Every structure is written in C-alpha cells, then in structure tokens.
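This entry is set out below.
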Amino acid sequence: MFGIPTPKDDINGLQVGHTHWVGKDLSRIVKYCQKPVETTARFFLHYTHRQALLDTVQLTHLPWGPAAGPSLTA
C-alpha cells in the first residue's frame, strides 16, 4: 500500500514464543518488532506530504544487547 512494504512478511505474534524458546532466534524477533516502527515512520512521511524523503531516510538499526543505563533491581 502506498509503495510501502508490509511489515508482516516473516513471523507473526503467535510464533514469537516458539521463535524465542525453541529457535533461540532473538535477532528474528528484533526484526519482527522493528518492521512496524519503520512502516509507521514511512506512513507518517507519506501522510505529511514528505514522500520525497522516503528514499533518502536512513534508518539506523542498533545491535541488540543488554540495555544501557540503570538496572532495575529490587
């Protein structure tokens, strides 16, 4: 739709648990979560009449790892 690729082209929500616990494929889950964010950004650019930016916007994928910052320990 609108020339924006669908974010739902790999796993779905029902497969996340299996992908994590059985497949041990956290990077696949990270991609599953990132795709809707990217799609939302692309729709925002489309609806705010900034379609020209669609090809120039650079999305930065940060490597997955422990969260930086204070830990939440009790």
In short: The helical segments are 16-21, 26-47.
